[in-house]
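cache lookup: miss for this entity combination. No prior model stored, computing from scratch. Input as submitted by user K.M.:
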Amino acid sequence: MAFLFDIKDTTYKWLGIFSLIWAFIFIPIGIEFIGTTDKRDSGMIYLGLCLPLFLVVGILFIYFGLQAEREKREFEKLAGYLKAYRRIRIPALASKMRLSEYDTERRIIRCVRLGLLTGYIDRASDEFFNPQGMEGKVLITCPNCGGSVEQMIIEGETGKCPYCGSLMVQAK
Amino acid sequence: MGKILGLGEVAHFGLATLFFLLFGIGALSGSLYIGQGDMANAANVIGACAVIALLPGVIFLYFGLKLARERSVLQDMSRFLMEKQRTSLDEVAARFRWSPPDAEDKIVLAINEGHLRGNFDRGTKQFFTEGSQQNMEFIARCGICGAGIGMWASKMAPAKCQYCGAEPRPGFKPPAPPPAPVPVLILAPPGMPVTGAPYQYGMAPAAQQYGMPSYGVPAYGVPPYSAPPYGAPPYGAPPYYPPAVAAVPPPPAAGPVQPTGQGSDISPYPQEVSPPPPQPPKKKRTVKFLFFSMKSGALKTIGFILFSIGVMFLLAAIGASFTFWGGQFFMIVCSGVLYLPPLLIGAAVIVRAYREEKYKEQLLDIVDYIETYRRITFVMLARKMSLPEDRVRKIVSDILEFELVEGYITQDNSEFIVALRKEDVKTVRSCPYCKNPSLNLQIIRGGSEKCPYCSGVIYFQEGS
């Protein structure tokens, strides 16, 4: 399924290009024939066949190919964000992707199905996390102000107290 | 459309060259007509070549150049990030004159393209490269003025407190750079046939690696040392000094370096060796489900066949109505017997097939939701799928029947939980925030649950 998704845009574009090449070959011939007196009928047939069969179909294929490419890029970008962040809140991801939260979540689900990424969604914190983002240390209280902080900090990350703004890392 | 036809930049340049060659050949052929004075044909040939060969060539060249430029920018940025090891998005944005969101997008693109490996830090909005953690340490407070600076600094380079301007780590000394190798004489090892010069030149590490006193000068050749006598091993070198790789001591095993910064101990729980994270379930499809999947396809095929038969009869009837006497009557009779039933039945079967297809999509979507959430209420599923709850329950029962997900519905019939390993589920009896001892929350590894009393988010934690 992921393979089919991967080659979808390229396949459409190749089919479009092939159709357009045939159109570019046959349409001038048809026009040339129409200009003559003895081959006018052949020219009409050429044009009648080529315009809908090759030109329109080719343009449609290219259009679908571009649509599929845009979709693929969007999915890859989403998967890239999720891999790079390891653990990210869906509203934050939605703002980065310039999508609604609902659409972002649907796309995450689709990415998981396509095998572009692996991970889970935590319903309480509304975060998506991959297996790397699973193992972190939980920050309960801020060592600076003593405020209760609910954060999971993954290795290499810095936690931020929402009250005093002080930064802290996970202790080894 | 940065990458047309899914090809790389080299392929784009190759295709552009090919099309330009084609155009060149065409133009040459056209010029032969010019020689014969047939200007019309020459114009036709050259014009056709321009459309067929020159235009695609220019398009391929344009996209090839664009791809090459994009790749070059990504490589530059990746080099910059790898040198810095840990950089804020603002710094990347300022360096390359992008906006911070654009810089973030480019970093993600570079990761996707394989130029870069690393992760974002959500707290500081920085990007750090993979493995850079071993060279960085977190400084929570300035050791001089006591200000909470909360910064990451290289263990090798001095840092600067943003408040007092001093080095925040008292007594910090940047480690000395590794000593530069010096030229030494290397003798041929015993047994090695000496065909030319009796010795060869090589590079030896500096003296202190061999426990000799270091005066900040090369091992020998300058005072206080003098060159060893002919045939003797060089000072500081082991007796046998084989050339090339054997002379290089093996690098120390790279183990995790404990950060020595003043980061606070934030975990109230004892450290435990955690089991490996659970692998996502493999997509399995039972025979029952395969038959179910094929149902929509089969229905579609049958529907299209019936519909096509109906259309053929309809066309035959229309043709008949124009060809022989009484055709109009024949068409009316046939409409009820020949083409109408297959048309109607075919259309109905096609509609049914699309409904089945839609149901299958919904079923697979719910499977993905369940596997991604691992624990989800029917209400939540219904909201996410924009479906009535009863329908969601029906789909979930079908999912269980097709054995697409291993799991169970809770006793109160409100949520679905996938089957998990015992060590991946923890039961929390007391809230760490409000200390309420009457909790009974089950938390799945990596996830969290909200305390029903104080709404504090309680994360899964080893040892809790």
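stored under new cache key. Chain B has a mean pLDDT of 78.
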